[in-house]
Write a structure and sequence with these properties.
By secondary structure, the chain is mainly alpha-helical. The protein has three helices and two strands. It comes from Histidinibacterium aquaticum.
Length: about 80
């Protein structure tokens, strides 16, 4: 059985923490960024990205993220953890 590829970080290299400590690029807080880096199992990383999409939806103003993250996944040859 082939090993699952690592899920790319949800970070899209904007890294400006405003909006009550949330990045304006990906919506993660600094503790969330640290938490994602600590996740080792692809299924945990996928669940984190799905949770993050819900967070972005609740907060609003993150419509640009999906396109940027899909490009990042394609570049790394990884299937995104959500349906586009």
């Amino acid at each position: 059985m082939a090993k699952k590829k690592k899920v790319p970080s949800p970070c899209i290299d904007v890294c400006k923490f405003r909006r009550e400590g949330h990045c304006i690029g990906c919506s993660m807080t600094k503790p969330q960024k640290k938490m994602f880096k600590a996740l080792k199992k692809p299924e945990h990383q996928e669940a984190f990205v799905v949770m993050l999409r819900h967070q972005q939806s609740d907060m609003g103003k993150y419509t640009h993220w999906t396109e940027a993250y899909l490009k990042k996944c394609a570049k790394k040859g990884v299937k995104p953890p959500f349906a586009a």
